[in-house]
TrEMBL record, chain A:
One of its GO terms (molecular function) is serine C-palmitoyltransferase activity. The keyword Methyltransferase does not apply. Its main location: endoplasmic reticulum. Its EC number is 2.3.1.50. InterPro entries: Aminotrans_II_pyridoxalP_BS, Aminotransferase_I/II_large, AON_synthase_class-II, PyrdxlP-dep_Trfase, PyrdxlP-dep_Trfase_major, PyrdxlP-dep_Trfase_small. Residues 119-479 form the Aminotransferase class I/classII large domain. This is serine C-palmitoyltransferase. Keywords: Acyltransferase, Endoplasmic reticulum, Lipid metabolism, Membrane, Pyridoxal phosphate, Sphingolipid metabolism, Transferase, Transmembrane, Transmembrane helix. It is found in: Endoplasmic reticulum membrane. Pathway: Sphingolipid metabolism; Lipid metabolism; sphingolipid metabolism.
TrEMBL record, chain B:
The lineage of its organism: Eukaryota, Metazoa, Chordata, Craniata, Vertebrata. InterPro entries: Ser_palmitoyltrfase_ssu-like. Pathway: Sphingolipid metabolism; Lipid metabolism; sphingolipid metabolism. The gene is SPTSSB. Belongs to the SPTSS family. SPTSSB subfamily. Component of the serine palmitoyltransferase (SPT) complex, which is composed of SPTLC1, SPTLC2 or SPTLC3 and SPTSSA or SPTSSB. The heterodimer consisting of SPTLC1 and SPTLC2/SPTLC3 forms the catalytic core of the enzyme, while SPTSSA or SPTSSB subunits determine substrate specificity. SPT also interacts with ORMDL proteins, especially ORMDL3, which negatively regulate SPT activity in the presence of ceramides. Component of the serine palmitoyltransferase multisubunit enzyme (SPT) that catalyzes the initial and rate-limiting step in sphingolipid biosynthesis by condensing L-serine and activated acyl-CoA (most commonly palmitoyl-CoA) to form long-chain bases. The SPT complex is composed of SPTLC1, SPTLC2 or SPTLC3 and SPTSSA or SPTSSB. Within this complex, the heterodimer consisting of SPTLC1 and SPTLC2/SPTLC3 forms the catalytic core. Within the SPT complex, SPTSSB stimulates the catalytic activity and plays a role in substrate specificity. It is a multi-pass membrane protein. It comes from the Eukaryota. GO terms for molecular function: serine C-palmitoyltransferase activity. This is Serine palmitoyltransferase small subunit B. The chain crosses the membrane at residues 9-27, 33-53. One of its GO terms (biological process) is ceramide biosynthetic process.
Length: 511, 80
């Protein structure tokens, strides 16, 4: 595409797999479905014991409490490979972590712990982009002090007695980090979206939401009661058509003008690894006079020359985006979310948002963790550690993606996004991939049907600034071997035979 | 060493078959059931091919050669 920022072009790939892959994927799902029906029949007949939720005998004549057919997929396909999710971790989720070993005797219906811990598993699944999930006592000194002074619980909502000076300090720091007038922080990232969108828009407003938006945005949009229209993922022609139709035709029956038009997009989409086309959306928004809500959950701290998100990545003015939202879970090693923008907007939210009035406010040690990691990222602690982390993340991302492309895997997304989805497609290979990677001491996250389209299951890697080159090489060698063993290298593009370049410093260090 | 390579290669082929048909996730008795059905269907396909394809090819060749043969004879007759 012709979208450029500075000197480097906007590169996104969404390669399609060869036809036989799609055929085999559907064959696999077909076999799974047939055996699912067989097992359901056996359970209904009584030939097999039911181990999932069912009503008591006395209630069998009532209206059913559990929706059996909707859970077909969960019961019959997810259960069989369930050991690859919800694995209990017993250490900090840094670049390496410890897992508790568990085994199953009845094909994943129940688990039991053996008591052993699998140590030093390389972590390719945690959202730890800048590596702030650490236990170093020096780094956490201020957090320990705040824990001593303030304790752990806030025991009140923000409006009543839960407004601490730590929150004010944090909000000023966030506003300074993003270069906006004001910001407000909330205790939970999901609740930031789902509880604040209803206070910004209501009935009679129009929400234009990207196809692949996160559940929190979808839930917030539905709760608000506004009309929702979906445009194709990152597709500006689709968005422009919806905007023109909205302005030309107005509301459905009365044909009155829409009260507000709000465009909901994310900075980095975590299932695709694609980056939003911000300059084009801002141009459209200015032309058609709509508002823009940007959810930077995965992009804050992870993209941009100094880690300030997609607005800095494209070299744009933060005033162009009306509502900047983000979370502290991914790049700052804490929990919670923020909304930033003009002072009037933030003051309005302080009195009108459900999350601000009713939810418990952020607890002080977490607020201090965000303060110290944000100061580190901005360079306010007197060191260049923050900038080094951002640069290390960028190098790791570029190296990891380049090597995977060269090996012949199909990788989705933008070259600069630290979220790397590797396509697996066939349902049989999902479980095999995750289990074999764990045998090689590497923890990965695999994603399947409800979260992705049915024929496009994938493994999602999250590169971190804390990963060393050796760790990435270990992972890449394991992927190479496993890719050949499981036949995952579907890419049809020519593979480069260039030797690796270890010192890749060069043009990308300009600011 | 060659026997080991051959055995590893055969195991790898079997593993690919399990992955592609999603048999890898099934319980052992379900796998046996699927293998039985699959081998039966495959055997029937092979038997049908063995019995019918040579005869059909022979008949098809005969039909086309007869067609071409008649054409040649008729042009020769006109020329005379």
């Amino acid at each position: 595409s012709g979208l450029k920022r500075g000197h480097t072009p906007f590169n996104e790939h969404f390669e399609q797999a060869p036809m036989y892959v799609a055929v085999f994927t559907y064959v696999g799902f077909g076999v799974g479905t047939i055996f699912g029906y067989l097992r359901d029949f056996m359970r209904a007949c009584g030939l097999e014991r039911c181990t999932f939720a069912a009503e008591r005998e006395e209630q069998k004549d009532f209206v059913p409490l559990y929706q059996d057919f909707e859970n077909f997929y969960t019961r019959n396909l997810y259960m069989r490979i369930r050991d690859n999710w919800n694995r209990p971790i017993c250490s900090v989720p840094g670049p390496q972590f410890d897992l508790m070993e568990r085994i199953t005797d009845d094909f994943n219906w129940t688990f039991r712990f053996t008591g052993r811990t699998i140590k030093d598993v390389i972590n390719m699944g945690s959202y730890n982009y800048l590596g702030f999930a650490e236990t170093d006592a020096n780094a956490l000194k201020t957090v320990a002090d705040v824990l001593q002074n303030y304790g752990t619980g806030v025991c009140s909502t923000r409006q009543e007695m839960g407004n601490l000076d730590k929150h004010l300090e944090l909000e000023n720091l966030v506003a300074r980090f993003l270069d906006v007038e004001a910001a407000m922080v909330f205790g939970m990232g999901f609740a930031t979206n789902s509880m604040n969108i209803p206070s910004l828009v209501g009935k009679g407003c129009l929400i234009l939401s990207d196809e692949l938006n996160h559940t929190s945005l979808v839930l917030g949009a539905r709760l608000s009661g506004a009309t929702i229209r979906i445009f194709k993922h990152n597709n500006m022609q689709s968005l422009e058509k919806l905007l023109r139709d909205a302005i030309a035709y107005g509301q459905p029956r009365s044909r009155r003008a829409w009260k507000k038009i709000l465009i909901l997009v994310e900075g980095i989409y975590s299932m695709e690894g694609s980056i939003v086309r911000l300059p084009e959306i801002v141009a459209l928004k200015k032309r058609y006079k709509a508002y823009l809500y940007l959810d930077e959950a995965h992009s804050i701290g992870a993209v941009g020359p100094t880690g300030r998100g997609v607005v800095e990545y494209f070299g744009m003015d933060p005033e162009d985006v009306d509502v900047l939202m983000g979370t502290f879970t991914k790049s700052f090693g804490a929990a919670g979310g923020y909304i930033a923008g003009k002072k009037e907007l933030v003051d309005f939210l302080r009195t009108h948002s459900h999350s601000a009035i009713y939810a418990t406010s952020m607890c002080p040690p977490i607020a201090e963790q965000i303060i110290r990691s944000m100061k580190c990222a901005m360079g306010l602690d007197g060191t260049t550690q923050g900038l080094q982390r951002v640069r290390q993340l960028r190098e790791n991302t570029r190296y990891f993606r380049r090597r995977l492309h060269e090996m012949g895997f199909i990788i989705y997304g933008n070259d600069d996004s630290p979220v790397v989805p590797l396509l697996i497609y066939m349902p049989g290979k999902i479980g095999a991939f995750a289990r074999r990677m764990l045998d090689k001491n590497i923890g990965v996250v695999v994603v399947g049907f409800p979260a992705t389209p049915i024929a496009e299951s994938r493994a999602r890697f999250c590169v971190s600034a804390a990963h060393t080159r050796e760790m990435l090489d270990t992972v890449l060698n394991a992927l190479d071997e496993l890719g050949d063993f499981l036949q995952l290298k579907y890419s049809r593009h020519a593979r480069s035979s260039r030797p690796e370049l270890y010192d890749e410093t060069g043009f990308e260090l300009e600011d | 060493m060659d026997i080991k390579h051959a055995k590893d290669y055969l195991y790898w082929l079997y593993y690919q078959y399990l992955l592609i048909t999603c048999c890898y996730v099934l319980e052992p008795w379900e796998q046996s059931m699927f293998h039985t059905i699959f081998i039966t269907v495959f055997a029937m396909v092979v038997y049908t091919a063995y019995v019918f394809i040579p005869i059909h090819i022979h008949l098809a060749l005969e039909f086309f050669s007869q067609l071409l043969g008649d054409q040649r004879e008729s042009t020769v007759a006109i020329m005379k």
